[in-house]
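CORE FACILITY INTAKE
Project code: CF-77B
Contact: R.S. (postdoc)
Sample description: multi-component assembly, two entities in total
Requested service: structural model of the whole complex
Turnaround: standard
Below are the sequence entries exactly as provided by the requester. Do not edit them.
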Amino acid sequence: LFLRHSTVSSLGERALIARITSRLATPPWVAVGPGDDAAVIKPVRGAFDVLTTDALVDGIHFDLRFTPPDAVGHRALAVNLSDLAAMGAEPRAALLSLVLPDELDVGTLDGIVDGVLTLAARYRVALVGGNITRTTGPLTIDVTATGSVRPRRVLTRAGARPGDEVYVTGTLGSAATGLESLKAGGATDASLGASIERYLRPEPRVRAGTLLGRNRAASSCMDLSDGLGDAVRQLAEASGVGITVNAADLPIADAVRAWHLGSGRDVTATAISAGDDYELLFTSRPAQRGRLRSVRRYVGDLPITRIGVVTKARDVLLQDEHGTRDLPGGYEHWDRSFRL
Amino acid sequence: LFLRHSTVSSLGERALIARITSRLATPPWVAVGPGDDAAVIKPVRGAFDVLTTDALVDGIHFDLRFTPPDAVGHRALAVNLSDLAAMGAEPRAALLSLVLPDELDVGTLDGIVDGVLTLAARYRVALVGGNITRTTGPLTIDVTATGSVRPRRVLTRAGARPGDEVYVTGTLGSAATGLESLKAGGATDASLGASIERYLRPEPRVRAGTLLGRNRAASSCMDLSDGLGDAVRQLAEASGVGITVNAADLPIADAVRAWHLGSGRDVTATAISAGDDYELLFTSRPAQRGRLRSVRRYVGDLPITRIGVVTKARDVLLQDEHGTRDLPGGYEHWDRSFRL
């Protein structure tokens, strides 16, 4: 504990590794865990392996000046679990690649590891290995997550068909509003506490994703990491269809509406273009409504809201009281990151 | 092609992704490849999954000033394939996480991708996904590789027993000598060309590793990324044994000996402490000699050299004409990187 104010470079390799690996539990399906050249995992019989990786960079995807270290760790794992959820996969294991500036405080590193491990424990994800290296640049955390899904339960972006209905989990714009509030010095309005938490510690929709896959209640699915507009556009393109979103149906938290009203800004624009809401966007055929009802019963109080329809014409549109126009957002986001 | 002198930030997201994904082939065991939230892979029936990740940072693990871009890409994948080989695993798929400075030249990125894909093709590794993001720091490449290994063929660091013999593949100190020569302005002596190549484009010992596992010819194995001294120490510790290395037996290329003789330096010290030789260190029981002979027959002209013995006393020693002393190297390498 007296080391918390040392830097990672002064602590040295062995102590740094021990500080992390001493906190890891190895479940029985991990044949070889941390400490060897690679991790060895027993696969789920009859299932496919699902793999994803996402890097977060200090100053780009988060900012240590106003993000607690545990939230950085939480988010680094959460964005990957969100990707697995979007495929209908159960998460199983993660690798943690830490790229650290010499002067990083050991206490900050401890906090980051706290955040990763707390979220990992909640979803029974085993941290099975990883890598630590130094950099002359900003702190970068690259998590790889792996999970399993039964062959016929895989959700992809490509299955939407004209006539399907378009749904989204949770609420939109909360994380972005939380971030704004944080940057403005924290939750002056207590009602924004939930939005700040949504930004800091997004809850990956693992349960919703796996239920949608298991019940075969969705025809396509993806997560919202870069905003609704971006996701709708990508899902439509992958499926070769169009989508019309109804502005009046977008699920927006009351506190987020109030914050926008107070600052005279357009809450619909935020709900569509803001990133960091790790919700699921999915489509469901009218014939799947019964299945979707049973998913709703099992996701607890997570809202699942119908926001639009899939069309044959390939346009991606927003319908509101003024008529119909191109859905904003989703062209380029070099300022953030994007998947291969 | 006329874009080769643009920067990655000016090229934009879609063009950048297309530049990479248009070059990818998707083998039949990849159920979902690039372009979705995560990759989906059909596992090898009856095999375990093996997972590893390694990040390389410009200025720490390579230097774009004297490393061709394709060598950077080659190395980023090779270090991970080397980790899989050390477990006895066949490589199958990789994820590529690119963390790019805005001003990076598109031609440099193309070269890096060339290097990754050329090596991937040689080992039939499918690039199934990844992530691209910007950074305010140096170029960082984080590759995650996955492979498969039959349960009883897993090689770990922990199986060495007193009386086992210690072996190493290839030659030692070549990569470090190649790097020195590169830094000094290139191969003034043509005989160092092979060493430079060993530094730039190390060959992961996939065939040797999988043969050792399949033939059950090794009792323990790891790769040499941070030098022989480090590896011997870690393998001995993981196995709860000691190891005595015989200096006279270390396999050192003639050109490397000549270069050290010319500069009046100790070639044995380089062979023990220098990193970047992605060779395998393994132990083999005397009863496994027959199996090791058949491995030798199938690895072609890759040398496999006996360099020492495993002892009950837990000391890690170097024996030379002056007697026996602690094997140097392997305490701390915060200047490079290390595994969880």
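Facility notes:
- The longest helix of chain A spans residues 69-86.
- Chain A has eleven helices and 14 strands.
Invoice: internal transfer
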